[in-house]
Amino acid sequence: MDKQYILAIDHGTTSTRAILFDHECNMVDIVQKEGKVEYPKSGWVEQDALAVWLDILYVIAGIINKSGIKPDQVAAIGISNQRETSVLWDKKTGLPIGKAIVWQSRQTSEICDRWKEEGLEEMVRQKTGLRIDPYFSASKIAWMLENIEGAREKAENGDLMFGTMDSWIVWNLSGEERHITDVSNASRTLLCNIETLEWDDELLEAFHIPKTILPEIVPTSFNYGTTAPYHFFGSRIPICSMVGDQQAALFGQLCLEKGMVKNTYGTGGFLLMNTGDKIVRSKNGLLSTVAWKIGDHVTYALEGSIFVSGSIMKWMRDELQLFDDVKVTSQMANNAKAQDDLFIVPAFVGLGAPYWDDKAKASIVGLTLGSNRNQIVKAGIESMAYQAKDVMDAMEKDSNLKISKLKVDGGATSNDYLLQFQANLCQCALERFKVTELTALGAAFLAGLAIGYWKLENLKIEIDQTFEPNKKKEEMDLHFENWHRAIASCQAFKPVQVEGNGHV
Ligand SMILES: Nc1ncnc2c1ncn2[C@@H]1O[C@H](COP(=O)(O)OP(=O)(O)O)[C@@H](O)[C@H]1O
Ligand SMILES: O=P(O)(O)OC[C@H](O)CO
């Protein structure tokens, strides 16, 4: 028999990738496609779900073509995806009825305020492990039902389907056969009870969301069915994992034991700790979430979600045009003449964990006439590390554990300046791995386990580089104190609404 591979499809906020892994856990080939993110109004973030589906087809065709393997050499497909981003589509036509609302979007802030005024917060926290915030899917669904013409009527007639991107991709990939979501994705909707792992009727009623539009909740690693042959060059390939990308990275980092922690620096930043079969309820601004369900066994995680991490660099490149390629930014930061009181708080879409301030606006503080682009870039990179340290401190308090090692991944970890600064700030070692695509590897592992391609003991990853602290804690603590002053000044800025203001 020809050599078999596992194909991971990793759909992130800014790009979609198809990656082939072999039995030795090596990355054999990759095809990547940048996606389009739209910002139609202040705080709004949207995507065209149909364009996402076309990107999936593009990377599938691309990887088969580029790698030269035969389609039936793919033993199974695993899918990891940006979470919470929500789309509604028409059951009859298969077409989205509006734009997908992206996880970063603040456009549903008013709905969340309303739910808070109705006193729903404590019930939501208890049932879901999350909090009322525009980040999660529920207010996005409610917004679409309220604002897209005919949506509620379609929902009531049973003609409407909801999905996070995992559901949307599998619905299409399976030839419209399977309307499913896995528990790791369901646990991010604000509609799933994290103890029963089922849609919660009381929440659905409180949010006026009809159950008929929801997908079936399934385990994270399972043979769900196959691709439609016309989407995979005539082959029916088993689809064997669906997993939220941050939980996928936790699995890909082999954080399989209670207390193990990873941090991903992608569009956003996400620190997750495996908490085993226990739900750890946060008192310090973190979230309790499902990591994965394999067979009947459920693993939970504690999570700190940072809304803007690597995307600050994209903003500096595309909007400020401070450089052409993010690759040069580590060197720019190294070249920056020390100006230690320049800070950027990247609250472009409010602040996530541990502050949860959906009205905060981004700010740059500490500018002087001598400030230059290198220093601004350096402050941008450092903002990723400061935000991660805030979450790490909260996680240590909530878990009563000292984090002595941080496994890292995500696009921005190619930035050595970032990782060294993070090691110094947290006074702990950071491990970066040879396979950088650990989200995709996690999805591949979960798919491969479902069909017996791998056993748990076969799974392995190799360290590329360890970053050890090389600066004193006392010095770094002073920088961290200044960061908190920058946060306070950013949160204090609450502009009044100006009538007739044409700005968006
Ligand atoms: N060398 C770098 N330094 C800083 N940021 C980087 C670097 N390379 C990529 N990034 C940032 O990482 C992000 C992409 O990471 P990735 O893990 O691919 O994101 P996602 O999965 O969210 O699409 C982009 O926002 C980009 O600006
Ligand atoms: O696109 P990413 O990889 O930053 O991930 C987005 C998260 O899943 C949002 O919760």
TrEMBL record:
<dbReference type="GO" id="GO:0005524">
    <property type="term" value="F:ATP binding"/>
</dbReference>
<dbReference type="GO" id="GO:0005829">
    <property type="term" value="C:cytosol"/>
</dbReference>
<comment type="similarity">
    <text>Belongs to the FGGY kinase family.</text>
</comment>
<comment type="function">
    <text>Key enzyme in the regulation of glycerol uptake and metabolism. Catalyzes the phosphorylation of glycerol to yield sn-glycerol 3-phosphate.</text>
</comment>
<dbReference type="GO" id="GO:0019563">
    <property type="term" value="P:glycerol catabolic process"/>
</dbReference>
<feature type="domain" description="Carbohydrate kinase FGGY N-terminal">
    <location>
        <begin position="5"/>
        <end position="252"/>
    </location>
</feature>
<keyword id="KW-0418">Kinase</keyword>
<feature type="binding site">
    <location>
        <position position="83"/>
    </location>
    <ligand>
        <name>glycerol</name>
    </ligand>
</feature>
<feature type="binding site">
    <location>
        <position position="13"/>
    </location>
    <ligand>
        <name>sn-glycerol 3-phosphate</name>
    </ligand>
</feature>
<feature type="binding site">
    <location>
        <position position="15"/>
    </location>
    <ligand>
        <name>ATP</name>
    </ligand>
</feature>
<feature type="binding site">
    <location>
        <position position="411"/>
    </location>
    <ligand>
        <name>ADP</name>
    </ligand>
</feature>
<feature type="binding site">
    <location>
        <position position="245"/>
    </location>
    <ligand>
        <name>sn-glycerol 3-phosphate</name>
    </ligand>
</feature>
<dbReference type="InterPro" id="IPR005999">
    <property type="entry name" value="Glycerol_kin"/>
</dbReference>
<keyword id="KW-0319">Glycerol metabolism</keyword>
<feature type="binding site">
    <location>
        <position position="84"/>
    </location>
    <ligand>
        <name>glycerol</name>
    </ligand>
</feature>
<dbReference type="InterPro" id="IPR018483">
    <property type="entry name" value="Carb_kinase_FGGY_CS"/>
</dbReference>
<dbReference type="Pfam" id="PF00370">
    <property type="entry name" value="FGGY_N"/>
</dbReference>
<keyword id="KW-0067">ATP-binding</keyword>
<comment type="subunit">
    <text>Homotetramer and homodimer (in equilibrium).</text>
</comment>
<feature type="binding site">
    <location>
        <position position="83"/>
    </location>
    <ligand>
        <name>sn-glycerol 3-phosphate</name>
    </ligand>
</feature>
<dbReference type="InterPro" id="IPR018485">
    <property type="entry name" value="FGGY_C"/>
</dbReference>
<feature type="binding site">
    <location>
        <position position="245"/>
    </location>
    <ligand>
        <name>glycerol</name>
    </ligand>
</feature>
<dbReference type="InterPro" id="IPR018484">
    <property type="entry name" value="FGGY_N"/>
</dbReference>
<comment type="pathway">
    <text>Polyol metabolism; glycerol degradation via glycerol kinase pathway; sn-glycerol 3-phosphate from glycerol: step 1/1.</text>
</comment>
<dbReference type="InterPro" id="IPR043129">
    <property type="entry name" value="ATPase_NBD"/>
</dbReference>
<feature type="binding site">
    <location>
        <position position="13"/>
    </location>
    <ligand>
        <name>ATP</name>
    </ligand>
</feature>
<protein>
    <recommendedName>
        <fullName>Glycerol kinase</fullName>
        <ecNumber>2.7.1.30</ecNumber>
    </recommendedName>
</protein>
<feature type="binding site">
    <location>
        <position position="135"/>
    </location>
    <ligand>
        <name>glycerol</name>
    </ligand>
</feature>
<feature type="binding site">
    <location>
        <position position="13"/>
    </location>
    <ligand>
        <name>ADP</name>
    </ligand>
</feature>
<dbReference type="GO" id="GO:0004370">
    <property type="term" value="F:glycerol kinase activity"/>
</dbReference>
<feature type="binding site">
    <location>
        <position position="267"/>
    </location>
    <ligand>
        <name>ATP</name>
    </ligand>
</feature>
<feature type="binding site">
    <location>
        <position position="415"/>
    </location>
    <ligand>
        <name>ADP</name>
    </ligand>
</feature>
<feature type="binding site">
    <location>
        <position position="267"/>
    </location>
    <ligand>
        <name>ADP</name>
    </ligand>
</feature>
<feature type="binding site">
    <location>
        <position position="310"/>
    </location>
    <ligand>
        <name>ATP</name>
    </ligand>
</feature>
<keyword id="KW-0547">Nucleotide-binding</keyword>
<feature type="binding site">
    <location>
        <position position="411"/>
    </location>
    <ligand>
        <name>ATP</name>
    </ligand>
</feature>
<feature type="binding site">
    <location>
        <position position="246"/>
    </location>
    <ligand>
        <name>glycerol</name>
    </ligand>
</feature>
<dbReference type="GO" id="GO:0006072">
    <property type="term" value="P:glycerol-3-phosphate metabolic process"/>
</dbReference>
<dbReference type="Pfam" id="PF02782">
    <property type="entry name" value="FGGY_C"/>
</dbReference>
<feature type="binding site">
    <location>
        <position position="310"/>
    </location>
    <ligand>
        <name>ADP</name>
    </ligand>
</feature>
<feature type="binding site">
    <location>
        <position position="84"/>
    </location>
    <ligand>
        <name>sn-glycerol 3-phosphate</name>
    </ligand>
</feature>
<feature type="binding site">
    <location>
        <position position="17"/>
    </location>
    <ligand>
        <name>ADP</name>
    </ligand>
</feature>
